[in-house]
Input
Amino acid sequence: MARSVLAVAAVTVLTVTGLHAMFPEEASALEVWNRVVFNEIYYYVPGFDVHNEYVELINAGGTPSFLDGAVITDEGDDGMPEGVFRFPGVRGGHEYPIQPGEILLIAVDAVPGEIEPDLSDADWEFWHPGDDNDNPDVPNISLVSGANADVALANSGDGLLLATGVDTTAAIECSTVVDGVNWGEVADPVPIGWTVCVDQEFAELVPQGNSLGRCAPGIDYNATSAGDWFMMIPTPGEPNLPSYPSDCSSPVAEASWGTIKARYRP
Ligand SMILES: [Ca+2]
Ligand SMILES: [Ca+2]
Ligand SMILES: [Ca+2]
Ligand SMILES: [Ca+2]
Output
């Protein structure tokens, strides 16, 4: 009995050692094939819109990912990128995990709510130098390049990108894009170059006070934001709940994971 336990232990040690050799430290950084995706976008908030916008990320994959040094950026009304915001730490570091199934709530400003929702207990907040609110109890995803302004999610249509952080200046290289979402309409001319990195069609606009929720569990058809998202009553930091009849049950043709990104690799 003892011998078999020892044998199992030895095999386990060998296996873990072998896995370490196969997956060096860098492998646990956020990579384009990770199923870390935007989960909810609350862009059209009643009252004072800008403070209380938020986004969520979810890890829909089976292994932890580390967000150290990863970036999020959004699209400007003129079709050009706005600021690029970066998680602290260095890409390849292990300070900021997102566990399988975990939802991270990222506020534009994690200030106590002047209006609902109160986002003062968000996991993260976007921050830029200068005229920005900063809740010292909530860690910042800080401006690293681009326009010195906060994330601002346009009610008429906008887009968001999550990228590995290998590239931290706009326009973000398609080969580093992990996930993206577009909604509404964009002004002519056609969307800027980096929207070709992500879903080609846009999710439909939602009325004020509703959010865009990704269909569970982290579905990403990599073909159209319209097929991945539905309108719902906001659920900040919590799993998305269908609030209305939705089309999540009628999937569009799925491109295999990573295909749409690989398509645009140099
Ligand atoms: Ca807005
Ligand atoms: Ca802010
Ligand atoms: Ca803060
Ligand atoms: Ca939610």
